[in-house]
Amino acid sequence: MPIDDVSALRSQRSALQFFFDFSSPYSYIASEWIEAVAARHGRHVQWQAMLLGVTFQAAELKPPVAYPLKREYVLRDFERSAHFAGLPYRQPEKFPIPTQNAARVFWWLNDSVDGARAVAWARAGLRAYFTRGVPLNDAAALRELASEQGLDADAAEAAWSDERWKQRLKQANEEALARGVFGAPFFIVDGEPFWGNDRQAQIERWLASGPFTRL
Amino acid sequence: MPIDDVSALRSQRSALQFFFDFSSPYSYIASEWIEAVAARHGRHVQWQAMLLGVTFQAAELKPPVAYPLKREYVLRDFERSAHFAGLPYRQPEKFPIPTQNAARVFWWLNDSVDGARAVAWARAGLRAYFTRGVPLNDAAALRELASEQGLDADAAEAAWSDERWKQRLKQANEEALARGVFGAPFFIVDGEPFWGNDRQAQIERWLASGPFTRL
Fold first, then answer.
1. CA distance B2 to chain A (A)
2. For the CA atoms of A165, A166, A167, A170, what is the dihedral angle to 10 degrees?
3. What CATH number does the domain containing A201 carry?
4. B153 Cβ under 8 Å from any chain A Cβ
5. Is B215 inside a domain boundary?
6. What domain range is A177 assigned to?
7. How far is CA A3 from the centre of its chain?
8. Å from A34 to nearest chain B CA?
């Protein structure tokens, strides 16, 4: 099938919404399979950078490492689940971290440069933090990552300091809340919400054969 | 292979620990596959009835339906995840409910009658609550369920009122906490903890080929 026909086919189906936070280990894992899963079923992915801090507050939740007992478990499960998916993982020493600057760079790239560059930035940021411990909350480290990714570091810093991209991220957080997002990764497929890296199999079945529940 | 040889082989490997609460939808789903998964890999399952209220308190957690946003999601996901696993599901009107009486009957059967009867009781209780809405916290309903399961209803009620089985359940809760259990279903395989119905695939891989992580 010619490329144009494939694109036309894809555009007829709704995009798969993928909400993530740069400080979420399970978002990192999902970021490595979501494009392949969507492509197998002729779907586009709309990546949505957001801040878990905002959704946690609305849902009266805390990061999983903030709870006794659960903390020890998830620190083990982050790495195990990454290895289960065939991915490298190194638990960052400082975790979780504030990720608004990385997220603003994402929205700047997405809205005014190129969607593909935004996705590449998201994947690079998640990999940098969860495999090399690059502190995305540190301005110098974020500038260096931008340069590594072929971006102008000054332009990236200007973007994350710009009121326009601060507002754009705020809007993204509000949209996430309005759609019921309370954690990450969070997926919406044809209006159906799926929470967690461990919903991959359900998403695959939904994409392959539609709803499997009466709801 | 003669039955005795299979039993001998099984006993050489450690049992798979399966912690559940009678009021946990994901425990219900897991209760339907855990025996088949263990059997495929020559393992026994040690069923462990416990009270989520105790582990939630220790981990500073609440039931998932007690959080804004998350509540709406999980009420959808309970049923969807059951259907994904090929199981019937009907959300009980009263949810969650206190399940100490059902759990004490489990320990009475397990310790002084027969492990297989205890497992049958656990499966029957989970199915009754999550497919027929039988309120396990109601004495009359629990007596009726006991009768349906071929138990003496008076003996069952005597068991759940008996200080001995109250203490046995308390001990089970304390053991669960000591092993890091903070939710249900919770599995321990060769010392490795797995939380959630959605860890089935990881448990299968662990049983088939051992650790897949450096931890």
1. 36
2. 120
3. 3.40.30.10
4. no
5. no
6. 3-209
7. 27
8. 18
